[in-house]
Design goal:
By secondary structure, the protein is mainly α. The protein folds into 2 domains: 135 residues, Helix Hairpins (Orthogonal Bundle); 59 residues, no CATH class. It contains 5 helices and 3 strands, in the order H-H-H-H-E-E-H-E.
């Protein structure tokens, strides 16, 4: 088994490990993301505040109506109680009573609007509460699947890491150090396969001498263009 093949196989294992670690990082990011729940909870909290305002407005409207009816009762009592006999005063009381009744109709309309607004706010709160519960259930289910996926990936990575350790133990220390150095320099790709006398990593055509050297089993040959270790498979 050639040194270049051993390094190429090690790189295949490292690529699997790299991808697995990236997947786990992405899963961790998704597990930490609570945007959907925060948005849904924000909508629910706004609906709660709307309920509070609607209830307050209705109480105020009810108090205004109650107070206005008391004013009308007092006006009516004065008008028909027999204590006032002066025609001018009676006429003034009549006008006052009519004015009070007109205003009562106005604030009763406002009371009705406040009742309708409260009904709408309660409906919105119910919808927001239901949406929040659904969102929490969906996110919990999704995170359960993600956690299971992460667990499976982590288990696979433990096995793959053991494979890497075994593969690396069969490689010369100097070659292994060069490989590790190249991986850092070349975005994780230290070994390039030779395809049709071309470096598959950078696309450069190999010279005849380089190609012949790359085919020697126990010799490490690097691409003249990108510097990666060449593997003729």
């Amino acid at each position: 088994m050639s040194q270049s093949f051993k390094l190429f196989r090690l790189q295949q294992i490292d690529t699997i490990l790299d991808k697995g670690q990236i997947q786990i990082l992405e899963i961790d990011k998704q597990l930490a993301d609570d945007l959907e729940i925060r948005l849904s909870r924000g909508k629910f909290e706004r609906a709660q505040r709307n309920i509070y305002e609607a209830e307050k407005n209705l109480r105020l409207a009810e108090e205004n109506v109650k107070e206005q009816r008391l004013k009308i009762e007092r006006s009516q009592a004065a008008l028909y109680g027999g204590k006032v006999v002066n025609p001018k005063e009676l006429q003034d009381l009549q006008h006052e009573s009519e004015s009070l009744k007109r205003y009562l109709a106005t604030i009763e309309d406002l009371q009705l609007e406040a009742m309708l607004a409260l009904d709408e706010a309660e409906s919105q709160l119910s919808a927001a509460e239901s949406h929040l519960a659904d969102t929490e259930d969906q996110v919990a289910a999704q995170k359960k699947l993600l956690s299971e996926e992460k667990s499976a990936l982590s288990h696979d990575l433990v096995i793959t890491d053991a494979e890497r350790e075994a593969a690396a133990s069969n490689i010369d220390d100097f070659d292994l150090r060069q490989y590790e150095k190249l991986r850092k320099q070349k975005n994780g790709i230290a070994v390039a396969r030779v395809v049709d006398k071309t470096c598959a990593a950078c696309g450069s055509t190999l010279t005849a001498a380089t190609y012949s050297s790359a085919k020697v089993p126990n010799k490490i040959t690097r691409c003249n263009s990108c510097g990666r270790i060449l593997y003729v498979g």
